[in-house]
Amino acid sequence: MESTTEAVRRSLRAGQIVAFTGAGISAESHVPTFRGVDGLWRNYSPERLATAEAFASDPRLVWEWYDWRRQIIHKAQPNSGHQALAEIERRATGSFTLVTQNVDGLHDRAGSRNVVKLHGDIWWVRCTGCAAEEQNQQVPLKPLPPHCHCGALLRPAVVWFGEALPESAWERAHEAATQADVFMAIGTSAQVYPAAGLVQVARQSGAHVAIVNPDPTPADELAEWVLRGPAGEILPRLL
Ligand code: OAD
């Protein structure tokens, strides 16, 4: 284990680095993941809460769920894993891109700069009428569901099941994956596409792939290095 850690640490000293994160990196900040033992999708139905159809049929229910998650995230603090990634970026001599599937904003709060958000941002809202987007950090949100000044309903500016990823974010992420010398997949079950496909893109483009996760994932077979354990413990060792 120590020599794998050392190999990954050395690989981060130069070249083009991509960190690709999922809900697991925020687990130690007490933000629930989606698919673990206490994962959100064990207790809540994605069809009723995270689709455009669900929002059309019951916007208040969907907003209550997002408002509840915003309250949890608002209380959360970035952990040592988020902080280590911000520090790796500060020390990077080549390029560093942090591609995240998370909507919680904890990477920003930890000081990461070059962050690509593939699944949107829970702290932004988008008008279902005029399509205007704005930041909204009110916790809790009142009234629910919120409305735009144009009169139409606002929705969370996140990607729901069945929706396309934001085009420019996807292009930036894909480009970074193809250019990467090192691609680290951290805290993701690597099951949700197209995001999960970036591991393969990076591997096929010649990147060294590292995985940081306490549990096995389908992406492990693409990895040169698998670091088993919580991100908050493993990532600081890579500094
Ligand atoms: P998942 O909930 O699917 O997976 C979380 C991963 O984190 C699992 O592989 C865990 O083993 C791992 N994990 C748990 N604790 C960890 C820790 N302390 N350190 C490191 N890893 C840990 O979350 P995602 O892969 O992010 O989509 O899920 C992908 C997408 O599915 C999400 O972005 C969301 C969801 O539906 C949308 O909202 C569009």
Explained architecture:
- This protein is of the alpha/beta class.
- The protein is 35% helix and 18% strand.
- The protein contains ten helices and nine strands.
- The strands form two sheets. It has a six-stranded parallel sheet with strand order 3-2-1-7-8-9, sandwiched between helices. The chain has a three-stranded antiparallel sheet with strand order 5-4-6, with helices on one face.
- Helix 8 runs parallel beside helix 9.
- The longest helix is centred in the first third of the chain and has 17 residues.
- It is elongated and about 55 Å long.
- The model has no long low-confidence stretch (mean pLDDT 96).
- 2'-O-acetyl adenosine-5-diphosphoribose (OAD) binds next to loops.
Concise overview:
The protein has helices spanning 2-11, 40-43, 46-49, 52-57, 59-75, 80-91, 106-110, 167-179, 197-204, 231-234, and strands spanning 17-21, 96-100, 115-117, 120-127, 133-135, 154-158, 182-186, 208-212, 225-227.
How many DSSP-defined strands?
Answer: 9
Strand order, sheet with most strands:
3-2-1-7-8-9
Contiguous low-pLDDT stretches (5 residues minimum) are none
Bound molecules: 2'-O-acetyl adenosine-5-diphosphoribose
Taking the alpha carbons of the first and last residues, their distance comes to 16 Å
The portion of residues assigned to helices is: 25-40%
What order do the helices and strands follow?
A: HEHHHHHEHEEEEHEHEEH
Structural class: alpha/beta
Mean pLDDT: 96
Radius of gyration of CA atoms, rounded to a whole number = 18 Å
Largest sheet: 6 strands, parallel
Per DSSP, the total helix count is 10
Question: Rough shape?
Answer: elongated
Strand content: 15-25%
